Structures are given as structure tokens and as C-alpha cells.
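chain below, 636 aa
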Amino acid sequence: MNRQILLALMSLLLFSRAFAGGGSEPITVENAMLVQSLDKFGTFWISDIAWSPDGQELVIAGNLGIMIYDTDSLDTYTRIGSQDILLSDILSRVAAVAVSPSGGTLTSVTTEGIVQVWDIANGSEITSVSISEISKMNNVGIYLSPDGMVLATAEQDGVISLWNTTTGEKRDQFVGQSDDIRNVVFSPDGEILVSNGDDRPLHLWDVATGEQLAVLEGADNFASVVAFSPDGTILASVSDRSTVQLWNLASGEAVIAELPIGFRDNAVIPYINAIAFSPDGTTLATMIVGQCSDGCGYSRLQLWDLETFTEQAVIDQGISEPISFSPDGETLAIAGEGGRILLIEAETGEEITQLYQHTGPAFHASLSPDGSLLATSEGGDVGVWDMNTLSIRAEMIGHTDYIDSIAFSPDGLQIATGGRDLTIRLWEAMTGNPITVLEGYSGEVAFHPDGTLLAIGDAAGMLYLYDLETGEIVTTQKGHADYIRDIAFSPDGLLMASGSADGTVRLWDANTGEPMTMVLRHPDRVSTIEFSPNSEVLAVSDYASNLWLWDIVTGEIVETLEENDIVQGGLAFNPDGSLLAVANIYGDIRLWDVATGHLLITLPGYDANAKDVMFSPDGATLITTYFRVIELWGIP
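prediction:
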């Protein structure tokens, strides 16, 4: 078969598989008002971990919904709940989950007060109740009983409310602590509730009657963490941030033991932020976080033998709360950095595997020409997402400082990254393997449409053209007096534009790098530039909330779009050039009619800077990146 035909078929196959959550038809001026959020993915902020009673399912909850893993395979999961999280701000998330004693259903609750019951086998929703009062509470903590039937909310001024998760009705309210509640924990049978707050004593409540059963004095429980033993007879609590106390609730004995928690030698202000009992009650896991004397952060997991009160294992790596033992006690699931889940062998502390690894914040992003891959950066690392599965396909680790830009080559086989470590790096897009490192260069990068040249714009205002075949810098130009903020080639391959913090956009011959006479001047630092698909219009934004459309032939302004918010994120034309998508600093995405300059719709994103915005090649999906979330928009 002819090689060109084969490549074309492969490209078509990749594109047909891309955008599993994409739109059904192209986004146009006529239907832009119908655009909705279709899916979200990215870094998973983990808020709760639960196991099914038989240990066959591992449930992970967080900002992107719920992931249900089959523990036999661990390479597949069911994702539910993502569309039911109200993205009114970046903290909206699934706050807690509980698996029913039978293992057939799963109850979840979001920070906005949406309680849902799911069929754990297929991920379908069974019931949904909205407790709107929860979203209006200040400083609220949300907790589920082990069977998911009761929801507890901790409010200001020492108030705890109990809610029926089936009806959404408030069933009781406890008032006994004199200050804000810091933590609420149900006993394993759901009959007792323990709470603690800034007033330090531990309060025990009868869930059925609302009666206060006991107040445990003698512990400094500021910002404490509390856990019940599996049989409900022992209560573990953190005292003065760094000591674990064990209380015998059956005998009423005050403190039966204090564990000698160990810290790193250079630890500064360490404290315990999570504890958990093993199912047989013989082991306690403690999570310590703190700072080093040199300013670095660290975390440590310690496993304790509760018969001898001695340490049996220590894990020092990037870990966090929550932590949860499997029902057989052999495995410990721990939240890790960057949305990872670590599975640890409980007896030895050895790592078994890692689940759901992500790249972290999407500070910069680039979509492959066929739409099958999306590259995003976190600090100095890059993750390449498969847009069909919405999972990481490759990772690129090599930069030692932040990455300022990412670009796919026209054939989609290479990725260029510009870092603040004074290196430009080329990578294999499919594998993440390094190809070339250009030492002494940094900043913005862009590929020529024919794939022969790579443009580089740096912080000193210098512009370079790098020949990808010879590996040589073939052009060096000094045209700007300040940082080059963005570079773009016209789709026809004739022009190159560079936007700078000196307030100018300069045009260059795309093949020779020679300057053109036209200079577009702006009242503030240029933020982003983007050519229209027909190469005739250049969209330019600056830091003074100005947004212009320039006629490249005449040098005249075609339209001035009335942006009220600072545009520091991306600009993107749809494939036919009729729409311009604009990402602003407050997280909104705005769609403009290019012909009339009218704002068609504002898409509400996270309450955080929208970084980049891109259309899929068929124009049916709009992709936006935020601090830690990537969102897909389209016509349902």
C-alpha cells in the first residue's frame, strides 16, 4: 500500500478514536449557545478512599468524581459522578464515599450537598438527593456513616447536623462543643459519633438519640485526627499534633498508650494528619507531614504493632491523606502526589503498585494535529494524554525548571518544549523518549507548518529559527525589547508572528526569519497571539484586557472585542475561522463571532486561571485547561 495512503488512514483512525467525550457536531456561530461541558479529566485531588467488603473494588473519590477499580486487574476502572460535581469553584468535589455492607451500592456526597447512590457493578446512578443547605454552610466538613445511610456535617460554633441520605432531611443536631469542629468520625457500627474541635476535648455522641455519651479530657486535640478500632472499643487520637493516644472506650480507661512517633532529624513543625486501624485491630498506620529545616516539605507513613507498641515499617515518599486498609488487612491504599494511588504491602511497607498517575497542573498545553493526543505540563514535566481513553500515554521528564511552552510538530510525531532551565527539548510524542536538547535557549516554541523549522523566542526578545534536519540555528533576530510571550506561524506557512512584553507584535518571513515592515503596537504587554485558519487575521490579547483582530494584509484593526477580564490564557479559532475562543484569568471561556465581534456565550469554568484553549480538528470539541483540570466542551 502507498505510504502516504497508509499514513492518511492511520491519521483517520486516530482521529475517529479521539475525543471519547467530544461533541456530536461542529461548534458554529449558530449553535454556540448550546455548548455545554461534556467531560473533565486531569489531576485527581483525592478526598476519600473506600473498599468494597470483599476487597474486589477500590473506590477513589475526589475533584473529578469517583474511580472504581477492579482489584484483580487494577488496570481498568469505572468513572462515575464527574458530571454531577458543580464546578462553581475549584474546591467542588466528591467529599466522601461509603460502600454498603452488601457491597452492591456506593453512596457519595459532594461539597455542594449532592448525595448519590450508585450501582457499584456498572456505575449507574440509582438515586440522587440535593441537600442545598450544605452548599450554603461556612467551614463545613462532610462525613458519611460506614453504611452510607447517615451524613454528618460539621459547622461553625460547634454544631454537628445529621442528615438522612435517602430523603435529604435533617434528622438531628448536636450542640456541645464551644468552638469550630475540626473532625467527625463514625464508629464502625455507625452508632457512635466522635467529634473534636478547637476546644480540644473529644466528644462522643449517640447517633440514634443525640445524647452526649462522654467527654474525653486530657488530650490536646487542636486540629486533631481521630479513628476507631474495627471493634469500636479503642479510639486513637492525635495529641499536640505529634503524639497518638489510644483510649479504651469499653473500660473507660483514659489513655492506655502513647506511640513514640518519629520524625526526620531535620523536621520542623511536623504533625500527624491521618491515622487508620488495620481490620484486625493489630496495626495502626500514621501519616506525618512537615517541613525540613532547609524549607522542603516531606511526608512519612509509619506502621505500628499495637500489641508491642513498636514501629514495624516506615515509608518515606510523596504521600498524603487519606489512607485505607483493604478488608483482609494485607494492602494499604494511600493518596500520593500528582493524583497517584499507592498500594502498599501492610506487613512490610513495600510498594505493590501505583494507580491513576497524572501529570499534575496543566500550566501549558498543546493538541496534536490529528486531535488524538494532548500534551500538558507540570513544572518541568510533560504528560501526553490519549484523547480516546483520557489517560496518560507517555511522560517526558528532563527539564530542571518550569516549562514555558509546548508544541506538536505538524506530523504529530514530535513535541518541543521550552524550559526556564535554558534548554529546548525535542521528544517522541508517542513514547516520551528524548530526541534532542538545545543548550542555552529557552522560552516560546512553535513549529513551521511544513515541519522543517522550529521557532524559539526568549526572555531577552531574541528570535531564533532552528533547522530540524541539520540541527543548526539558521536565523537569529533581535526585534523585541522585552520578553517574547508568544510565537505563531500562519497556516499557509508564509508568515511568523511574535508577541512581546514590549507591547508589540512583529511579523517575519516564516522561511528566512527576515523582519517585515509591519509592526502592530499595543498599549500593554502582549499576552497571546493566534492566526485565523485562512492566515488573513491575527488575534492579539494583552494584559490590559484588550483583544483585537488585525487584518494582516492592511495592518488595520478588523474588530476590537470588549473583554472585561485579563486574557492571560489561550486564543483559538475554530477550523472555519468563524469563532474565536478566549480563556481569561478568572476561568471563563468566551466564544466570539469573528464576523460581527459579538460575544455569543460565556462558559463558566473553574475559579482559577484558564490556561489554554483549543478546538479539535473537526471543530466539534473545545478543550480548555485550568490549574489541575482539563475540560471538554461541545454540543451534546
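Residues 1-18, 83-91 have pLDDT under 50 and may be disordered. The longest helix spans residues 3-17.
thats it, cya
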